[in-house]
Write the structure tokens for this entry.
Amino acid sequence: MRSEVRCAAALVLGLGGLAAQAAVVPGPMAGIEGGGGTSIPFGSNLSCRYQVLYDVQELPWTGPRVITGISLRPDANTTGVAVPPKGFLDVSILVSTTSRTSTTMSAVFEDNYSTDATWVVSHRSVQLPGQPAVGAGPMPANVQFAFDVPWAYALLPYVGDSLPENLLLEIWIHAQPSGAYRIDNLSSCTAPITVFGNLDTATCAPPGGTAVGITSDVSMLAGSSYSWHVSGAPANTVFLLAMNLTNTDGLLGQSFWPLPYPMFDPANPALPSPALTVLGWPAPGCWINVNPVVWLTGVIDAAGNGTATGVVPPGRDSVGDTYYAQAFVYAPTANPLRLITSLGRGATVCGPLGVTRNYAFYNPIATPPQPVPTSGALQYGVGPVIEVW
């Protein structure tokens, strides 16, 4: 299908400068579990057309690249459960660039092809490998499909400084036996978390209690709300959540007061630190770990828990940003300043990425046989984490 350009390209694929090591797509998912698993397309006994479109911004390379195969990651969200091999499947694979994007992808399969669309695997009999019982992911991308012929991404000319077009992958399962088989998927994403800063848990705590803890939501998506959760606080009080996009600057922008900064004089904890003398009182054992730029407020309930929620700015540019936060809790009897703090917690925006899938199951051996579908169901922000090589 539209393979004439690829036949010509195959004559020049000896250009070693276009070859590269395996790369994770989408790029931000290198070393990170996709956050979801899916039985589409391999966890059924039905035939399936399965397309995935990756926006060019999600590709971890620029310019032309020779691709000789792809690998899919098995799902690692069901930990400690071994998965038996599944086979044999009759599989074909198409790759193409496309002017469609993750937001304009068509439900009609062929509408998404470009002139360089090429079937790089044709009716191959495949056995999906068994997977061991493991802990947390990501797992190795060992569901491998070597191409029958190399394919060159962005070998066709493009204008000026414009980026090459987006990447389209179609896995067509003509037949498969029954049986479960899940692959790593972007149906949600797990926000990378960091814990940082200083806190003396013995002294910066409610009387007779433990230090204040801070956690956050599992998934952090651009354009969506995101919550930070405080625990171990005095009952029925209030707290402030300090936020910034960095945790390395100085307090109030002054490099001679580097973070983390004590809320007491280390030489004499009964006195406030030099930067906080205006407050009049110290908070021994408590530290400022984030230079506050944005404040969120929250209420502590009778169990000592509270939640503060903000909204992450929309847009692909927000993906990869890390938000650093710290809780400041009103504690009337904890210390002279009547304030205790938590450690800092950083959460990184992990999605949604520019990925969309389009798929349709069908049964060609039903009575009467179901025809090959020409269109499918679109799901935005959803698709497998793959490696190209």
In short: The first helix runs from residue 4 to 10. The radius of gyration is 26 Å. The mean pLDDT is 90. The longest strand covers residues 86-98.
